[in-house]
Amino acid sequence: MRAVLDHIGIAVGDLQKATAFYLDALGLEVEPPEEVPSQKVRAHFIPVGRSALELLEPTSPDSTIAKFVEKRGPGVHHVTLRVENIQAALDQLKARGVRLIDEAPRPGAEGALVAFIHPAAAHGVLVELKQKPEHTEIRPLRTSLGGFQLISVNDGALKLDGGAMFGTVPRVMWEKRIPADDRHRIGLSSRPLVVEADWGRMLIDCGCGDKMAPKQADIYGIEGSGRLDRSLEAAGLGLDAFDVVLASHLHFDHFGGATMRTGSGALVPRFPKAEYVIRAAEWEDATHPHERNRASYIADDFVPLKAAGVASFYENDQEIRPGVRVVRTGGHTGQHTVIYVESGGRTAVFTADLIPTTAHIDDPWIMGYDLFPMETLNFKRRFIREAIDREYLIFFEHDPLVPAGYIREKDGRRFVEPLRG
Question: What is the CATH topology of the domain spanning 4-131?
Answer without folding.
Answer: 2,3-Dihydroxybiphenyl 1,2-Dioxygenase; domain 1 (3.10.180)
